[in-house]
Design brief:
5 helices; about 0% strand; about 110 residues; single chain
Length: about 110
């Protein structure tokens, strides 16, 4: 299994926990919408995480790219899942932070110190 596959598996697990812990009553919808967002961003995430791991992107640059990607995510998908607009914004932000933190843990914090 590649490091990117490890990242995707960890991100999916973390997003599942997010749905259960922070969005009770919506966990199935949260998982589905978060998974769809992750699937849409997969190609870019593969590129950006490899650049992050190689030191070609700083943490801040990586965060900005991921936030830009998720800013393009339609909140309509969340509201269609029965989540209010305010909760949809909160969920989108939580998904973004979860993906970023999972990537940083996988690609930077797992490396031995120089």
């Amino acid at each position: 299994m590649s490091q990117f596959d490890d990242f995707l598996a960890a991100a999916k697990a973390n997003l599942s926990v997010l749905g259960q812990d922070s969005f009770e009553g919506y966990s199935d919808q949260v998982k589905a919408v978060a998974q769809a967002a992750l699937d849409r961003a997969k190609v870019n995430l593969a590129l950006w995480t490899s650049q992050l791991a190689a030191g070609q992107l700083s943490q801040a640059e990586f965060q900005n790219l991921v936030q830009g990607e998720t800013d393009l995510t339609e909140v309509a998908g969340y509201t269609a899942a029965g989540i209010s607009a305010a909760e949809a914004q909160r969920l989108r932000d939580a998904v973004t932070v979860t993906v970023i933190n999972t990537a940083l843990d996988t690609f930077l914090r797992s490396r031995p110190p120089p």
